[in-house]
Amino acid sequence: MSRKLSKPSLKNYLSTGKVVIEEPQEVHEAPKAAAEKKTGEGKGVNADKLLGFFSEEDLATWEPVFKAGAEIKKEKLDLVGLRNFFRTMDRVRFTLYILESEKAAMRIIRSGVQIREPFLLFLLWDDIGVASIYSGENPVL
Asked: Fewer beta carbons under 10 A from the terminal one: N or C of the chain?
């Protein structure tokens, strides 16, 4: 099964402040039976609810991105697994942020030792337009 998918592009976003929607691309979807096996992982997150946790500075950055159609999905949190991924991830493609409390400014994670409690959530931004949200034992989303 395939469908057309428009993806937001953040190319030149910092200099122009504009999110560009690229031409639709055809993507192939996994069969629904395989997708249903994942319980709780990869589910979409309400952008408005997520933005309610952000500070004013972070809202100015992330609101246009999420409103432009960036995919937001919730992932299961495993701190050790996230640290291992962080050590080997492509630093050009991925950026990992930590939000320590509601309305606090998000910080970019620069070292694996920063992936620890206390935190409200981690946001892993993939430059293809996907934000993965990792929240703790008391999920906020």
From this structure: N
